[in-house]
Amino acid sequence: MEEVGTPSSTLPTPYLVPSKRKKNLTDPHLHRDVSDTDKLKYANERLAVLNSEIVLYTKKMEMSEDTNMKEKYQQLIAENKTKVKILETGKRITENARDHKKLYDKETFKF
Region labeled Disordered — which residues (predicted)? Predict the structure, then answer.
């Protein structure tokens, strides 16, 4: 006799055991109780690192004569630029949320 349904081995792992997925406890973006200033500080530090990597990869790409390495550096630069855009968007959202919280008056429930 065949069993009805799908065996658990064919199910995607995140849906099978979501509680066993590892969480990065050092990344403040994953925690809701982290203050906005800490999130912005983290974003600024990460942006500085990414921008310095972009400059470094650009210099290495210009100095390299191998076309394969140039393509690799171009790919790394594109990935870092994407990460920078994502971080800047998240930073802007956090700043807007922080400004919104400052305007909100809890006693009168008015803006």
Answer: 1-37
Which value, in Å, is the radius of gyration of the alpha carbons in the chain? 22
Instruction: Domain ranges for the chain, please list them.
Output: 24-103
- Closest listed residue to residue 25, CA positions, set 15, 34, 17, 13: 34
**Tokens for 107?**
């006693």
2-55 pLDDT per residue, tens: 444 444 444 444 444 444 445 544 555 545 566 778 888 888 899 999 999 999
Give the per-residue pLDDT at 17: 42
How is residue 5 annotated by DSSP?
Answer: S
State the Cα–Cα distance between residues 27 and 65, nearest whole angstrom.
38
13 in Cβ contact with 68 (< 8 Å):
no
